[in-house]
């Protein structure tokens, strides 16, 4: 019985080795830069970390296919190096001796990329699936719509222009009132001043002293008797 069990395990190991090997069909190479990402807090890659990777990949496949057929045992790792790189495949539990198409594995990875990175405290640059280019993160959308920002700027400019016109009008009116008040004061004092009528400066008569015409003054001296 023991021999049969050992023989069965050997056959399974050989079959797994044929499925998971460098550049095998539907196989993916993974490279992790743990020390680069975490520095002094870097953890050691060991059998427990390999088990976590298998569990995360099984989760990604189940999440993508919405089926519970993928198990941790369906994820095979091989050619693990000390610099933390390895190859892996996902076997198809419904078909013995076959692997899940690479397109499905890639789609599952893309769908759960952030979850995979988070599990190992890494990023797209420090946890790389060499055959899969990292997806660009969606552009950050501002919390306030762009059209609302533009509308606010235009509204502020309009309000500023209205305030400027109102202030300028008030200052101009004050200036006119001041000039009118000064003119009235000068007229009350009887002082001669110059006003502008239709753009032509005109002399205002001194109301108290009057204004003597030189021609008539000469006639008065000639005809007036002593």
Distance between the termini: 170 Å
Mean pLDDT score = 79
- Overall SS class: alpha+beta
What letter string, H or E per element, gives the SSE order?
HEHHEEHHEHEEH
| Order of strands across the main sheet | 2-3-1-4
CATH-defined fold name of the domain at 1-129: Alpha-Beta Plaits
Overall outline = rod-shaped
Write down how many β-strands occur, each being a DSSP E stretch of 2 or more residues: 6
**Range of helix content:** 40-55%
Strand content: 5-15%
CATH class of the domain at 1-129: Alpha Beta
Characterize the main sheet.
4 strands, antiparallel
Care to describe what's here?
By secondary structure, the chain is α+β, with helices and mostly antiparallel strands. It has a domain at 1-129: Alpha-Beta Plaits (2-Layer Sandwich). Helix content is 50%, strand content 12%. It contains seven helices and six strands, in the order αβααββααβαββα. The protein has helices at residues 2-19, 34-38, 47-65, 102-111, 113-119, 146-189, 214-223; strands at residues 28-32, 75-78, 85-90, 127-129, 194-197, 200-203. The strands form two sheets. A four-stranded antiparallel beta sheet has the order 2-3-1-4, with helices on both faces. The longest helix is centred in the C-terminal third of the chain and has 44 residues, at 146-189. The protein is rod-shaped and about 120 Å long. Mean pLDDT is 79; it is low at 4-14.
